[in-house]
């Protein structure tokens, strides 16, 4: 049920006006009059306010409910609403009491929907060293304890126990990345498809708008939920005696069974090549995997969303605010970070081996129209507490807007997991002109004082020596536009490492291109009389990384004038090449062995090289580099006349609540500092 604006207030087109009572919502000490029915209902009282006597779908989420297009649960709720359904959301249900939250709203007519939230719950709950976090970014006040481990499985099992006859559909990043046999870092074991552990009836992987539309269409036609088994971008478990659903347009491929994976790490690794390639193909095969007495069936993905489709998703009537129920509980950190940001596209063609973006959003870019972006900018600009500053105009990678293949038929046949590794594809249009024009259109809004680029920028695509297809002047124009108008003191980029073998495995370009980018950055800095800092982001203990590689990284970055304070250790997350290597020891594409630091001692020692300048690390560095026979590196890091201030900074390096959140599942600012050499 969609809403419209009347007399300055948002009303439902089907509700009598007498059911409304004004709610005064306070954000940043600004009073804004809204109606409780502007949000999706979260209680029976709110359902009755809408005049409903029953619900079609009830959505359970591991996150607090923020009605904003950057929050997946809100998007799914609004999408289902736009299909004419009566939808309610139960955010962060209590699993430690009498489970009242799972029965209080009754049974939906169509199905329950379940998501663990915007991040995998294990990443929300634990650091890279498996320690409990002291903050949850998606909970009011950052409070912990409101999201269980493996939330999708926990919620679904409870629903299946309470409502055995009601279908449960799972989705979101947790379900998406755990759809096949996967390594779970926190339990240190292989797990089967989350469909098996959760007992859900269907899994939607990737972005949910397209498959949900088809599922709802079939249900409204009267097709029983159990008979819906050929929708693209969904997965189900079949009993082995069941007939396999037929589709003459699909080819099939079978991967190694879950039981074989448990016994053979190399066989497990071999699965991933098929999974990754089929996830990124435009004409993918249907995947089958035996799981005990059942067979997992993963249908091919939908084509990339069209501009009209993605615009429609962002144009839904979001309040862009947390639900009023949280008013007295404190701010929601993740919301505070993005409340004045604009997402301009989905997908990433980088295919980095430690990143899950392409596995969830796809490698092909789905870009919004400039008109849709500007409509959202206008909405944000007219929020009562907006001060004129947009915190981010970006996406998974800030500078991939409108980029796609020049000849679509070439992309149709491509199986490469990355369009820019080891080199930029000659068929990829990497023009930054549409993005530069978008920035200028945004800045022309009378209420916008400045729009920032908070998302990470692919610096390698701005280097002509690497991006040989592009016009160097256009690349310089974009870089200059960003440096002069869209950052405040610092530009963050992610070279990730300095070792070419490690970077090759990461699917990242040589560090030499970072040197070249820095030269261009410094040139513009001088030309424009700026005093900007370049902030590079690095990862330690990645597969193929040795202690000597970290020593080289420390020496090379010091030589460039960087003093790294906050960086990240590699965290294995499901559905990445690096995680497969971490667990199995084999590269899934070559099936050759790859050494990986796995013990806590190895990880801590690699990470320690980032902080070569700390007094407590200097003796250890001397002993380690002498043992490695790398006196040359020792002379760089700890020379006799070291000009670095010996006691700066003091104390141990400390991480904030999301320092160790993998890069692909963060939207925060860079988590370390660097200083130019004095």
UniProtKB/TrEMBL annotation:
One of its GO terms (molecular function) is catalytic activity. Residues 666-678 have a biased composition (Basic residues). SMART domains: Elp3 (SM00729). [4Fe-4S] cluster binds at residues 348, 352, 355. The keyword Glycosyltransferase does not apply. Its cofactor is [4Fe-4S] cluster. Residues 644-678 are annotated as: Disordered. Keywords: 4Fe-4S, Iron, Iron-sulfur, Metal-binding, S-adenosyl-L-methionine. Binds 1 [4Fe-4S] cluster. The cluster is coordinated with 3 cysteines and an exchangeable S-adenosyl-L-methionine. Residues 334-614 form the Radical SAM core domain. Residues 644-658 have a biased composition (Basic and acidic residues). Belongs to the UPF0313 family. This is Putative radical SAM protein YgiQ.
């Amino acid at each position: 049920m969609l809403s419209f604006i009347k007399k300055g207030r948002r009303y439902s087109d089907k509700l009598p006006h007498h059911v409304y009572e004004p709610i005064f919502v306070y954000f940043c000490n600004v009073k804004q009059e809204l109606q409780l029915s502007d949000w999706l209902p979260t209680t029976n009282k709110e359902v009755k306010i809408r005049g409903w006597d029953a619900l079609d779908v009830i959505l359970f989420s591991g996150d607090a409910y923020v009605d904003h297009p950057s929050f997946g649960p809100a998007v799914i709720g609004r999408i289902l609403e736009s299909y004419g359904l009566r939808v309610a959301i139960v955010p962060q249900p209590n699993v430690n009491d009498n489970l009242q939250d799972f029965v209080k709203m009754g049974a939906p007519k169509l199905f329950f929907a379940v998501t663990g939230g915007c991040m995998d719950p294990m990443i929300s709950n634990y650091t890279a060293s498996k320690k409990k976090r002291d903050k949850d970014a998606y909970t009011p006040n950052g409070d912990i304890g409101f999201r269980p481990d493996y939330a999708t499985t926990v919620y679904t099992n409870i629903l299946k126990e309470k409502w055995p006859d009601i279908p449960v559909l799972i989705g979101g990043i947790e379900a998406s990345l755990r759809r096949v046999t996967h390594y779970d870092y926190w339990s240190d074991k292989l797990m089967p498809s989350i469909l098996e552990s959760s007992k859900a009836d269907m899994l939607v992987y990737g972005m949910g708008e397209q498959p949900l539309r088809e599922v709802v269409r079939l249900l409204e036609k009267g097709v029983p939920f159990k008979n819906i088994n050929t929708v693209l971008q969904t997965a189900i478990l079949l009993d082995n005696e069941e007939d396999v659903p037929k589709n003459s347009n699909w080819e099939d491929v079978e991967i190694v069974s879950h039981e074989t994976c448990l016994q053979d790490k190399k066989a497990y690794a071999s699965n991933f090549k098929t999974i990754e390639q089929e996830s990124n193909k435009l004409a993918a095969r249907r995947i089958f995997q035996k799981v005990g007495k059942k067979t997992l069936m993963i249908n091919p993905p939908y084509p990339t969303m069209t501009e009209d489709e993605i615009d429609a998703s962002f144009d839904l009537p979001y309040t862009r605010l947390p639900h009023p129920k949280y008013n007295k509980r404190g701010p929601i950190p993740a919301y505070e970070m993005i409340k004045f940001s604009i997402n301009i596209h989905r997908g990433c063609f980088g295919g980095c081996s430690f990143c899950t973006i392409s596995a969830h959003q796809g490698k092909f870019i789905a870009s919004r129209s400039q008109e849709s972006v500007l409509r959202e900018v206008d909405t944000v600009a007219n929020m009562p507490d907006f001060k004129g500053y947009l915190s981010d105009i970006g996406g998974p990678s800030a500078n991939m807007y409108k980029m796609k293949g020049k000849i679509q038929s070439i992309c149709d046949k491509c199986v490469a997991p990355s369009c820019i590794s080891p080199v930029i594809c000659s068929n990829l249009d990497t023009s930054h002109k549409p993005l530069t024009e978008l920035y200028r259109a945004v800045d022309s809004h009378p209420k916008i004082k400045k729009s920032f680029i908070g998302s990470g920028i692919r610096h390698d695509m701005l280097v002509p020596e690497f991006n040989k297809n592009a016009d160097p002047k256009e690349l310089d124009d974009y870089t200059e536009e960003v440096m002069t108008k869209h950052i405040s003191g610092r530009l963050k980029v992610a070279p990730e490492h300095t070792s070419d073998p490690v970077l090759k495995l990461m699917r990242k370009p040589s560090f030499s291109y970072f040197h070249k980018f820095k030269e261009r950055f410094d040139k513009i800095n001088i030309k424009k009389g700026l005093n900007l800092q370049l902030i590079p982001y690095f990862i330690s203990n990645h597969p193929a990384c040795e202690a000597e590689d970290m020593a080289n990284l420390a020496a090379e970055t010091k030589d460039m004038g960087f003093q790294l304070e906050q960086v990240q250790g590699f965290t294995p997350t499901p559905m990445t090449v690096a995680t497969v290597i971490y667990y199995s020891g084999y590269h899934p594409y070559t099936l050759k062995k790859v050494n990986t630091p796995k013990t806590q001692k190895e990880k801590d020692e690699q990470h320690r090289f980032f902080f070569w300048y700390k007094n407590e690390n200097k003796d250890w560095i001397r002993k380690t580099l002498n043992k490695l026979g790398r006196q040359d590196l020792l002379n760089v890091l700890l020379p006799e006349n070291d000009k670095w201030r010996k006691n700066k900074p003091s104390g141990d390096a400390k991480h904030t609540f999301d320092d160790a959140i993998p890069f692909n599942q963060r939207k925060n600012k860079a988590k370390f500092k660097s200083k130019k050499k004095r």
